[in-house]
């Protein structure tokens, strides 16, 4: 039905129309759903954008975009950070007069942004705004095109004020720590004793140079690589075991072990220290070893010294006790224990000083005081004193103690007590002796002065002061000898003689030699003086007034001169008379011998007896004249001895033969005991013959009248290599005192025995021998003569 009413729709059309409607509905529904989704997404994005904006605002970093035309996109914080009134909108607004960046900082930022725009080169700048103390870090880079467009630069600004200061402090602390670490490392390396560090596995990780030298290794690396240990295992404990024990204990552990260092055995104190920072886990074990060989040696020496000192203190006479810092008795020597009646058990008990004072008080070994508690506390305070204290204790039994309390450096006390009872008594006696000495000095007849070794006047008596007319204050000033004597020179007749006094005193004090001298005062007095060295180094000057002695000496000298003149006259007279007597005597003897020989005819018996008597008398008188002449020459010192070898036995035999007739006539037994070894001596034979004959003659003549037929004279002679000894003895009455005086050379005499013995002594002396005469009244006389072999 194309030309009328329209034809009804075909099914296909209806299907298409329905399909289209369905599609349209579906599209509408999808569009609605899409719109809702987009709305939700938009709301999410908006919320996310707000959150990001808040996050950026709260972030410590501020983003800034600088576009190619130098416009700026940034928040308000940029203005606050730079001290500007508002947020800048272009780059030039970043620089202000009183705020913002200064010219140098602004230009530096501009150049950095240009570099980032042209070469996409990032940069970092630290800039400080004007008038502030902030430090702002500018970190810039080329921005993505989507962010700011082409040529834009993204800046991130952060306030690094606190961080920069902390960084500066951190850097300073780091530098200090590094310097300290380097110093500590240098110190450890330069340490003179071995040091090391072990890691947690107990292996060596670090050693110093001293460790390397101790183990004689090439280097520290070689020690670590080879694990060379300094300490050898002791009692099964190695060095790593000791370090492990220190880690387990959590504290330093030390031990003393022998170690071989550079080939020498030493005693070392080894310390292992676990390292745990702030009490955390142990990160390693540090160790060091200190050589205590000398310390141990010194300790041993100190112990030996203490033992020796205590042994020595036991030998001292002074009482010594030692108290420790706790005021307990540590040591007391034997004198101390005896003096204070302390037993060995009390010393071992280590009683306190205060308790000992109480015990001593009860035993009467402390002085009597009014307030004992106060006295006791004052002595207990000795321990706190800085210097020694000294006291004198007078005990009840009269004992005087000198007590010295010496604080020791360790807080203890050394107590020394010395019994001075005897010294006090001696001091009293000395004072008495000094007073006696002073009184004695002042009453001496001599003037006495004592000079010290330095020449100063030390002591003097009143006679010395009066002798030199010196006042007491001058002498009390103890002047030197030169000063004293120079002021006294005008008292002498010859003032320069004062130097003689000074010289003898100097010789006595310095040279320790005794000297004497003589001086004369102006008033005519004469003094002999002597300086005598004393044992204490001083010199004693003694001056004796010899004025009267000088006068007597002068008179004696005049008398002696007169006696000498008279003696010379006597000697001359004797010599002359001996010569004058010898001449007629020789004539008488000659004529008598002629008569005896019969030149005048034969003589009768009576005449012959007369002639024999004359000849005998002439011989005796001739010998007496010879004796007198020899005696006179001996006294005058002119006796001449003619020396020649003399047979001593022949001389003695001849003397015995000549004396036999006299002995027989006097009824005296004459005995000769002559040894075989008499030999010869050098001497004058005639004079020796007269010597022996005279001794025998005197012995016979003195013995005969007293013994009446039972007298006995002995001649004994013996010899050796040095000389001969001749003894003539008798049992007569002994020599008279006058004759004995002659033999001693005390006085002259007229007795023939005295003259004979005196002459015998001179003849023996002239031959270089000695003569000894022993006589006892009623017992007899003995004459012993010793004559040497040579002159």
Automatic annotation (TrEMBL):
EC number: 2.7.13.3
Entries under InterPro entries matching the protein: HATPase_C_sf, HATPase_dom, His_kinase_dom, HisK_dim/P_dom, HisK_dim/P_sf, PAS-like_dom_sf, PAS_4, Sensor_HK_Regulatory
Gene Ontology terms for molecular function: phosphorelay sensor kinase activity
Lineage top rank: taxon: Bacteria
Pfam families per the UniProt record, alphabetical: HATPase_c, HisKA, PAS_4, PAS_7
Catalysis performed (reactions): ATP + protein L-histidine = ADP + protein N-phospho-L-histidine
Keywords, in A-Z order: Kinase, Membrane, Phosphoprotein, Transferase, Transmembrane, Transmembrane helix, Two-component regulatory system
Domain Histidine kinase: start-end pairs: 576-791
Transmembrane segments: 12-32
Protein name: histidine kinase
Species assigned in the record: Sphingopyxis granuli
């Amino acid at each position: 039905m194309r030309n009328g009413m329209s034809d009804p729709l075909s099914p296909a059309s209806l299907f298409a129309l329905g399909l289209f409607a369905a599609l349209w509905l579906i599209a509408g529904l999808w569009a609605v759903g899409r719109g809702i989704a987009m709305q939700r997404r938009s709301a999410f994005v908006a919320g996310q954008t707000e959150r990001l904006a808040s996050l950026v605002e709260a972030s410590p970093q501020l983003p800034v975009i600088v576009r190619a035309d130098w416009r700026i996109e940034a928040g308000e914080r940029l203005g606050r950070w730079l001290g500007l009134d508002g947020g800048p909108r272009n780059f030039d607004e970043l620089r202000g007069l009183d705020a913002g960046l200064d010219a140098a900082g602004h230009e530096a930022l501009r150049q950095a942004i240009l570099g980032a725009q042209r070469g996409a080169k990032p940069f970092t700048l630290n800039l400080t705004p004007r008038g502030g103390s902030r430090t702002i870090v500018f970190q810039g880079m080329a921005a993505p095109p989507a962010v700011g467009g082409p040529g834009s630069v993204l800046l991130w600004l952060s306030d690094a004020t606190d961080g920069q200061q902390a960084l500066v402090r951190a850097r300073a602390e780091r530098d200090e720590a590094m310097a300290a670490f380097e110093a500590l490392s240098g110190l450890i390396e330069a340490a003179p004793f071995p040091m090391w560090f072990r890691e947690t596995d107990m292996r060596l990780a670090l050693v110093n140079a001293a460790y390397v030298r101790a183990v004689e290794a090439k280097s520290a690396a070689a020690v670590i690589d080879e694990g060379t240990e300094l300490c050898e295992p002791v009692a099964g404990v190695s060095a790593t075991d000791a370090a492990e024990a220190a880690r387990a204990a959590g504290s330093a552990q030390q031990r003393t072990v022998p170690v071989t260092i550079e080939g020498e055995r030493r005693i070392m104190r080894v310390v292992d220290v676990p390292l745990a920072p702030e009490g955390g886990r142990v990160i390693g074990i540090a160790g060091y070893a200190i050589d205590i060989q000398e310390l141990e040696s010194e300790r041993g020496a100190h112990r030996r010294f203490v033992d020796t000192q205590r042994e020595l203190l036991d030998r001292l006479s002074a009482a010594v006790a030692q108290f420790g810092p706790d005021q307990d008795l540590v040591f007391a020597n034997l004198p101390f224990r005896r003096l204070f009646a302390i037993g060995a058990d009390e010393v071992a008990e280590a009683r306190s000083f205060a308790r000992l004072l109480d015990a001593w008080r009860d035993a009467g070994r402390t002085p009597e005081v009014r307030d004992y508690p106060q006295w006791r506390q004052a002595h207990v305070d000795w321990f706190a004193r800085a210097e020694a204290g000294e006291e004198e204790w007078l005990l009840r039994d009269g004992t005087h103690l000198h007590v010295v309390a010496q604080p020791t450096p360790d807080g203890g006390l050394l107590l020394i007590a010395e019994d001075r009872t005897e010294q006090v008594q001696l001091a009293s006696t000395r004072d008495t002796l000094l007073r006696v000495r002073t009184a004695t000095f002042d009453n001496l007849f001599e003037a006495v002065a004592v000079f010290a070794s330095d020449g100063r006047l030390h002591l003097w008596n009143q006679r010395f002061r009066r002798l030199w007319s010196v006042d007491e204050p001058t002498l009390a000033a103890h002047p030197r000898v030169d000063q004293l004597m120079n002021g006294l020179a005008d008292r002498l007749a010859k003032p320069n003689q004062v130097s003689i006094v000074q010289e003898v005193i100097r010789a006595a004090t310095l040279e320790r030699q005794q000297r004497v001298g003589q001086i004369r005062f102006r008033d005519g007095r004469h003094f002999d003086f002597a300086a005598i060295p004393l044992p204490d180094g001083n010199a004693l000057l003694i001056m004796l007034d010899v004025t009267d002695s000088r006068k007597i000496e002068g008179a004696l000298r005049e008398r002696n001169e007169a006696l000498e003149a008279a003696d010379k006259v006597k000697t001359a007279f004797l010599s002359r008379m001996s010569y004058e007597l010898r001449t007629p005597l020789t004539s008488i003897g000659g004529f008598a011998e002629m008569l005896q020989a019969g030149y005048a005819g034969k003589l009768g018996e009576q005449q012959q007896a007369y002639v024999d008597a004359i000849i005998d008398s002439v011989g005796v008188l001739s010998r007496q004249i010879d004796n007198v002449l020899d005696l006179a020459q001996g006294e005058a010192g002119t006796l001449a001895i003619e020396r020649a070898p003399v047979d001593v036995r022949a001389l003695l035999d001849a003397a015995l033969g000549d004396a036999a007739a006299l002995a027989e006539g006097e009824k005296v037994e004459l005995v000769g005991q002559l040894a075989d070894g008499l030999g010869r001596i050098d001497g004058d034979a005639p004079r020796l013959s007269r010597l022996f004959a005279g001794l025998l003659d005197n012995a016979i003549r003195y013995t005969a009248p007293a013994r009446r037929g039972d007298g006995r004279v002995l001649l004994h002679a013996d010899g050796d290599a040095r000389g001969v000894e001749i003894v003539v003895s008798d049992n007569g009455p002994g020599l008279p005192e006058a004759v004995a005086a002659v033999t001693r050379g005390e006085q002259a005499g007229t007795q023939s025995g005295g003259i004979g013995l005196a002459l015998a002594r001179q003849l023996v002396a002239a031959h270089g021998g000695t003569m000894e005469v022993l006589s006892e009244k009623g017992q007899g006389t003995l004459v012993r003569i010793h004559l040497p072999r040579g002159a």
